[in-house]
Design brief:
- The chain has 723 residues and is an alpha/beta fold.
- The chain has 5 domains: 3-99, 3-Layer(aba) Sandwich (GIY-YIG endonuclease), CATH 3.40.1440; 116-174; 195-372, Rossmann fold; 383-426 and 483-613, P-loop containing nucleotide triphosphate hydrolases (Rossmann fold, 3-Layer(aba) Sandwich), CATH 3.40.50; 630-717, 2-Layer Sandwich (Alpha-Beta Plaits).
- The protein contains 21 helices and 30 strands.
- A 7-stranded parallel beta sheet has the order 11-12-10-13-14-9-15, sandwiched between helices. A 6-stranded parallel beta sheet has the order 16-26-25-17-24-23, sandwiched between helices. A 5-stranded antiparallel beta sheet has the order 2-1-4-3-5.
C-alpha cells in the first residue's frame, strides 16, 4: 500500500499522511484534494511512502488528484522546506504562501493566458489619433516592441485604451508561451560606455563561475542600474533566466521601461501585489516553463519557480520592504542568498546605504564588496547644510534660511524636493484650553488630522472619526493642529509660492490606480517645480531637475527605543539626498535640526554613509547586537493583557538555557493597537545554531500550550524592528 505525505495550509508545524487508491497515480510536487477536519482542502504532496505511523482505522484516502504532473520541482520544494524551517513557520503555510492564489484554490496552472501586444504596419506608420493616451501607447510599442498586457497596465494604460487600437488594426494581440528567446540572439540596444569602476565590477561578475554574492556599494546616481543591465547580458545570452527584486511597486514601471529599452526582444514579466490573480498565475507559469527571460518583482518574487535561473539582482537591498511583516515573516534578500548559493549562481546586492548586516558580511569576506564612488552625471558631490532650528522663528516648520534657498532654486528654473515622512495635515489635534489630544480609542497613538477629507484617521488601525467642532473634555472651540504633515506643508508652500506648480506624493495622493505614474511623469516632464512627499520619493526615482532637497524633521530618528533607528534614519537621509544633483551640477541638501552638534549627523554630513555605517558596526559589536548576535522575537496580542503576559511568561524556562538570553515579557513600544494589547519576548544568542535549536524546542511546547489558541502569536526571526 502507498501513502502520500501532504502539507496543508493550516498553522500546524507538521505534515499529514493519506492513503492512495492503487488505481490512482500521483507524484511528489502535485496537488491533491483531501478532507481535513470536515473540510475539503487543497494539499501539496511532499513525499510518497510505503508505510505510515498513522493507524489503518484512522488514515483517510485522498479525495482526488488535481495535477497530472508536478507543478513544483524537488529543488524548489527543498528551498521551501528550508524557508519554513529557518523562519519557524509551518511547511504547509509556507508552500501555499509561495503559490499564486489560483493554485491555492485548486485551479489549473494554465487556466489563464495574458496576451502580448505588437504594432501592425498601420500602427508603425504614425497614425493620426486624437487621444493622448492612445498616442502614448503607440509610441511605447514603437520603442519597446512586444509588450504584455500586465506591463501596459503597470505603465498606466487601460483596456479601454487598448481595445479601440486593436479594433482599428493598429495593434495585434497574441498569446506567447514558448522558450524561443533562449535560443535566439539577444538584441541589445545602444548602451553608454562604462567608467572604470563600473567596468571592473562587470568584469568581476562576468568572470564568476558558481555562487558569489557581490555587494555593490555605490553612491546615489553612480550608475548601479547600468551595471545590472550589462551583467545580465551574459546571463540572458546564455539562455538563462534572471530575477530583479525592487522594494516598491512604484519602482517597477520605470525599471521595466529601462530594461525593456535595453533588451527589446526579450520577454520581461512583472510580479507584484497590484496584479490580478490571473496575471500573477500567468507570470508564475511563464517563469516555471522558461517562457519568461526576466522578471521584475517585489519581495514575494523570490518564490517564483524559475526553470533555469542564472542570476538574481536585489536593488536597494537595505530597504525594509523586503521583509514581510506578517504571516511568513521572511526576508527576500536573505532568501536570495540561500537560493543563489544552492543553485550556484551569482547574486548582486546594490545600494548606496548597505544594511549593517550586509556590510558586516562583506567586510568579513562572506560577500565580495565592490564600490562605485563617482556619480554618473556630476563630478562634484552634493553640499550638505545643517539648519539650526534652536531659537529660530519658523513658518509651518520652515526656517527663514530654508525658504530663501527654495526661492533662489526656483528662480534658477530648478526643482525643489521637500521631504517629510508623515502624511496627513497634522499628527494630532489639541485643545488650547485644557490640553485634550485627538487620541485613537483603540491604539496607544494619536489620531492624525487629515484636513482634505476632514477626518481624524489612525494610521495604525485605520479607524476614522469626524473632527469634533469643540473639545470633548471642556467644550472649547479653540482646537489647534499640532505638528506637521505633508498636507500642511503642501498648503503652506502653495500660499508661499502661488505661481509655482506643486505635486504631493504620499499614500493618500496616490491611492487611485495610475496616480503615482502620472505624478512621476509630470515631475520628469518639468510640470511640478516643488515636490512634497514621504519616503515614496526616496526609493530609486530619478528626477533630473531636482537641485535642492529639504529634509524637515531630521530629529525624529535620533532618539528611539529601536536600536536600528539611527541606521534607518541615516539610510533615509542619504537616499533622499541622492535625489538632488542628477542633471550635471551638484545639488544642495538642507537638514533642519535642533541638534546640529549630534555626532551621528556630523559624521553623516562630513564623512558620508559609508563612514557612519562602519562606526555603527563597531558600536553594535561593543554591545553584542545584530549582526554580532542573532535575535528572535515572540510577539503575542489579545484583548486581555493578562492573557498575553501569562502566555509569554510561561515560555520563559525555569532554569537558564545555555547560550540563550531572554528579555521579557515586555510591552511592545506601541502597547495597544486595534484594541489588542501587545507584548514581546526577546530571544538572543551569540550562535545561530543554538538559537534555532532553542526555538525548535519552544515551538514544540507552544503547539501544545492551552493558551496558544486563545490569542494571536508569532515568531519573527531576524526582526527588522521591535514594534
Amino acid at each position: 500500500m502507498l501513502f502520500v505525505e501532504v502539507a496543508l495550509k493550516v498553522p500546524l508545524h507538521r505534515t499529514f499522511d493519506y492513503k492512495i487508491d492503487p488505481n490512482i497515480t500521483v507524484q511528489k510536487g502535485c496537488r491533491v484534494w483531501v478532507t481535513f477536519a470536515n473540510r475539503k482542502l487543497v494539499a501539496m504532496v511532499v513525499d510518497i511512502k510505503t508505510q505510515s505511523d498513522v493507524p489503518d482505522n484512522k488514515i483517510k484516502d485522498i479525495t482526488s488528484v488535481i495535477d497530472e504532473r508536478p507543478i513544483i520541482s524537488d529543488a524548489y520544494l527543498t528551498f521551501l522546506k528550508f524557508t519554513a524551517r529557518y523562519y519557524c513557520h509551518s511547511l504547509g503555510e509556507t508552500i501555499f504562501t509561495a503559490l499564486p492564489a489560483s493554485l491555492r484554490q485548486g485551479e489549473h496552472p494554465d487556466k489563464t493566458q495574458v496576451p502580448d501586444y505588437t504594432l501592425t504596419e498601420e500602427g508603425t506608420a504614425s497614425p493620426k489619433l486624437r487621444a493622448k493616451k492612445q498616442l502614448a501607447l503607440i509610441e511605447h510599442l514603437k520603442n519597446s516592441g512586444v509588450t504584455s498586457l500586465t506591463e501596459l497596465k503597470a505603465l498606466g494604460f487601460t483596456t479601454q485604451q487598448i481595445k479601440p487600437l486593436k479594433e482599428k488594426g493598429l495593434i495585434t494581440e497574441a498569446i506567447n508561451h514558448c522558450e524561443a528567446w533562449s535560443s535566439n540572439t539577444l538584441e541589445i540596444a545602444s548602451k553608454p560606455r562604462l567608467n572604470e569602476e563600473q567596468a571592473a565590477i562587470c568584469a568581476a561578475v562576468n568572470q564568476q563561475v558558481g555562487y558569489r554574492t557581490f555587494l555593490i556599494e555605490g553612491v546615489t546616481g553612480s550608475g548601479k542600474t547600468e551595471v545590472y543591465l550589462q551583467c545580465l547580458e551574459k546571463v540572458l545570452n546564455a539562455g538563462k533566466q534572471a530575477l530583479v527584486l525592487v522594494p516598491e511597486i512604484g519602482l517597477t514601471p520605470q525599471t521595466v521601461n529601462r530594461f525593456r529599452r535595453r533588451f527589446p526582444n526579450t520577454p520581461i514579466d512583472l510580479w507584484h501585489s497590484y496584479l490580478t490573480d490571473n496575471e500573477r498565475l500567468h507570470t508564475w507559469r511563464r517563469a516555471e516553463q522558461g517562457s519568461s527571460a526576466l522578471v521584475i518583482a517585489t519581495r514575494s518574487g523570490i518564490f517564483l519557480p524559475f526553470k533555469s535561473l542564472g542570476m538574481v539582482v536585489v536593488d536597494e537591498e537595505h530597504d525594509g520592504s523586503f521583509k514581510q511583516q506578517d504571516g511568513l515573516r521572511y526576508h527576500a534578500r536573505d532568501l536570495a542568498v540561500y537560493r543563489c548559493a544552492t543553485q550556484q549562481i551569482p547574486l548582486l546586492l546594490g545600494t548606496a546605504t548597505p544594511a549593517l548586516e550586509t556590510l558586516h558580511n562583506a567586510l568579513s569576506d562572506k560577500y565580495q564588496l565592490v564600490s562605485l564612488t563617482k556619480r554618473a552625471q556630476t563630478k562634484v558631490d552634493n553640499a550638505y547644510l545643517l539648519v539650526d532650528m534652536k531659537g529660530q522663528p519658523h513658518q509651518n516648520g520652515f526656517a527663514p534660511t530654508t525658504l530663501q534657498h527654495i526661492e533662489r532654486t526656483l528662480a534658477r528654473g530648478k526643482q525643489v524636493m521637500v521631504f517629510l515622512n508623515r502624511r496627513g495635515y497634522a499628527p494630532t489635534l489639541m485643545c488650547h484650553e485644557c490640553g485634550w489630544l485627538s487620541e485613537c480609542h483603540r491604539c496607544s497613538a494619536s489620531a492624525t488630522y487629515h484636513k482634505g477629507m476632514s477626518r481624524l484617521v489612525c494610521h495604525h488601525c485605520g479607524e476614522q472619526s469626524y473632527v469634533p467642532p469643540q473639545c470633548i473634555d471642556c467644550g472649547s472651540t479653540n482646537i489647534l493642529p499640532v505638528g506637521l504633515g505633508t498636507e500642511q506643508v503642501e498648503q503652506f508652500l502653495e500660499l508661499q509660492f502661488p505661481d509655482t506648480p506643486l505635486s504631493r506624493i504620499d499614500r493618500d495622493s496616490t491611492r487611485r490606480k495610475g496616480a503615482l505614474e502620472e505624478a512621476l511623469n509630470e515631475i520628469n516632464e518639468g510640470g511640478a517645480r516643488i515636490l512634497v512627499g514621504t519616503q515614496m520619493l526616496a526609493k530609486g526615482h530619478h528626477f533630473a531637475d531636482v537641485s535642492l532637497v529639504v529634509i524637515l524633521d531630521v530629529d525624529s530618528g535620533l532618539y528611539s527605543s529601536d536600536f536600528r533607528a539611527t541606521e534607518h534614519m541615516a539610510q533615509l537621509i542619504t537616499q533622499v539626498s541622492g535625489r538632488a544633483g542628477r542633471s550635471g551640477e551638484p545639488g544642495t541638501v538642507l537638514l533642519q535640526t535642533h541638534y546640529c552638534e549630534h555626532p551621528l549627523l556630523q559624521d553623516l554630513v562630513n564623512n558620508g554613509y559609508g563612514d557612519f555605517a562602519r562606526y555603527a558596526l563597531k558600536e553594535r559589536e561593543e554591545v553584542a547586537l545584530p549582526p554580532f548576535s542573532f535575535l528572535a522575537l515572540i510577539r503575542a496580542e489579545a484583548n486581555n493583557a493578562k492573557l498575553v503576559i501569562d502566555f509569554l511568561s510561561d515560555l520563559v524556562p525555569a532554569s537558564p538555557f545555555s547560550g540563550i538570553q531572554l528579555l521579557g515579557p515586555i510591552p511592545a513600544p506601541m502597547e495597544r493597537v486595534a484594541g489588542k494589547y501587545r507584548y514581546q519576548l526577546h530571544i538572543q544568542a551569540q550562535d545561530r545554531a543554538i538559537l534555532h535549536s532553542y526555538l525548535t524546542q519552544l515551538l514544540a511546547y507552544v503547539d501544545k500550550h492551552p493558551l496558544a489558541n486563545r490569542l494571536r502569536w508569532s515568531i519573527d526571526i531576524d526582526p527588522m524592528d521591535t514594534y
